[in-house]
Every structure is written in C-alpha cells, then in structure tokens.
Amino acid sequence: MITRIVKMTFAHQNIDCFKEIFYESQKLITAFDGCIRLELMKDVSNECIFFTISYWQSEEKLNSYRDSYLFKNTWSKVKPLFSEKAMAWSLSSDHLK
User: Fold this and answer.
1) Residue 54 and residue 41: Cα distance in Å, rounded?
2) What is the CA radius of gyration of the chain?
3) 39-74 pLDDT per residue, tens
4) Are 32 and 68 in contact (CB under 8 A)?
5) Nearest 5°: CA angle at 90, between 53 and 31?
6) Please, where are the H alpha helices in 1-97?
7) Which fold is adopted by the domain 2-96?
8) pTM for this one?
9) CA angle 45, 49, 52 (to 5 degrees)
10) CB of 51 within 8 A of CB of 41?
11) Domain ranges (residues) in the chain
C-alpha cells in the first residue's frame, strides 16, 4: 500500500474555493481504480495549510491516477489557488516488515 501526502498552502481568500473543489472531486477520486481512501486535514496552527492523505493499492495505481484526466483537471483548478509551491510524499511501509 502507498500513502500519498500532499501539503498545500493557500492564500486565505482561496480556502473556500479549494474546499469546494476538493469535496466535488473527492468521490470521483475515491472511486478511481486503486484508491482506498482520501482524507483532507488542516494544520492546527495555520489555517491556510492543508494536507490531502490518500491511500493507494500500489504505486502503479497512484501513478495511473496522476496520469489521468481526473487528476490533471482537478490539479489545474487547485494549483492557481496556492500561495506556496505544494509538497508531496509517497510513503510505503512494505519494506519495514
């Protein structure tokens, strides 16, 4: 399983727009082949910082999503709302066993 964490920082005036895009897209993303779950979290000390945490069956499934129209279309709407460059990590615990 792959855990994908994306940190996004928004201008304060863009937060509501981001949330609207996220909640419209969440069902489509979670229905994407290989997506197990998708969560949205907010930093406790900075209301402009959000994290998406998604769980994928494999890196191949995650990459398939990242190459999809759904991702490209959603990202094209979200990216202009950032006040800082997004950061992302793909994590696996498989090698720790």
Assistant:
1) 11
2) 13
3) 999 999 999 999 999 999 999 999 999 999 999 999
4) yes
5) 50
6) 15-30, 59-66, 69-78
7) Alpha-Beta Plaits (3.30.70)
8) 0.92
9) 120
10) yes
11) 2-96
